[in-house]
Amino acid sequence: MSLEPPTYLSSLQNNIRARPIPWEGAVRAGNITDDHLRKIKAVDKVRREQRQQTVEADVKGYTALLAGSPDAKSVLELAFKRTDIVQYILVLSADLIADVPALASALIEHPQPYKPFLPLLRHSNNPEDPIPLLTSSFLTSLVSTALASSSHASTREEEALPQLYSYLSVLTKNQDSGLQDIGVQGFSALLCNKRARELFWKQRQETVDTLMEILRTAAAGKDTQSSTTLAGSTATNSARTADISVGGGVGLQLLYHVLLVIWQLSFEGSLVGDELHSEHDIIELYNQLLRLSPKEKTTRLLLATLNNLLTANRTTLLPVAVIVRLPALLSNLGGRHLTDPDLLEDLNSLSEMLDEYTKTQTTFDEYAAEVQSGHLRWSPPHRNPTFWRENARRILDEERGALPKKLAEILSKSWDNDKQVLAIACNDVGSLVKEVPERRTQLERLGLKARVMELMADRDEAVRWESLRAVGEWLRYSFDQ
């Protein structure tokens, strides 16, 4: 999938191409060989057609120049102390594999094509150091070409990808939205086959977590004129970023590219779906982003990702989609004047899937699904006395008390970022005690009474109130006795 090259990276590469290099002095100092110099000069500052003819006439020689050979080191390994030459060679390497596909193919067949380049990703800890940045650009291009040519990753790509993901993740964590976008576009270029996506997911604390934080910032933010980026930090006003800000100050271009990466990842829906929900509440997050989506292109990616995830995880994620009122939002979207055919196809698919699911669900089913999802919201059953009168005993009995056990698990967590979950769980425990007081010992054995009493001292007012009400039901039963 081709994306526009990031502005800052293109500017940096153009600057390096224009710099004069004292090549003869480098040969005398032993930084490069005469053979290296001949090959470099033959393709330096010449027309693309001439460069292509020169390299195609000596593919083996240029492969050895960049990746080395059994008899000689690569130019990067020999010139590693000369940062000006290293930067130039990295830019030239990227140009050569872009202009001469035959060279890219030959490098991929080399026994160790990435060996001279991978150490340069660790050249320094400064995210603005040109050397690792340029290295990541070259490696992303070459590795993605290798991945696209095969349905699986070879041992060489399996070694290179984790290191490349780690470096790109550093960029995505940067305060500068331009560097963030370079990292995100690098991810997108690499996620072109199943194994690459599996390795990306394996490193999700580095890779996915930061992307989800960007999306949460976009979903929570209201300032559409701000020039801030992730975590409210001020974006660097430079050539790296020239973008319109949307929710939370996240640039529209950055938002689109992050959504693109998560969409690519969603093709492994059965692998990632449940964890994306449990770790990031992705269905609720995407529901909110759909409400705020500024363009059809972002709406298209949101719907396509939801379609992939829900299709692969019907049992666990369809209930969550109903809880967060996704069907109503889809109905609202259907009333808009939308023209993108892929968007409309995913919208219809999602609507039909959810309509088919909701036709078979009772109020009890919806409540049970919400509890099993592990994240409670103030959905209608929680405050409905009739629901509790009719279903409290069933909640305690169903599947040998699976729902009270899940409530105990939910209450055992701190929920520092969403205290209402604790308040809702206390409400539910109190309702169970009120409707089926003779079963209170079942709840006590699960530690629910002790935990609810502990929450009476919580710093959140709603949690204190609901826990007090729940404890009150236990006390009321004791007084009645």
Automatic annotation (TrEMBL):
Keywords: Hydrogen ion transport, Ion transport, Transport. GO terms for molecular function: proton-transporting ATPase activity, rotational mechanism. The keyword Transport applies. Residues 361-479 form the ATPase V1 complex subunit H C-terminal domain. GO terms for cellular component: fungal-type vacuole membrane; vacuolar proton-transporting V-type ATPase, V1 domain. Subunit of the V1 complex of vacuolar(H+)-ATPase (V-ATPase), a multisubunit enzyme composed of a peripheral complex (V1) that hydrolyzes ATP and a membrane integral complex (V0) that translocates protons. V-ATPase is responsible for acidifying and maintaining the pH of intracellular compartments. Belongs to the V-ATPase H subunit family. V-ATPase is a heteromultimeric enzyme made up of two complexes: the ATP-hydrolytic V1 complex and the proton translocation V0 complex. This is V-type proton ATPase subunit H. It comes from Talaromyces rugulosus (Penicillium rugulosum).
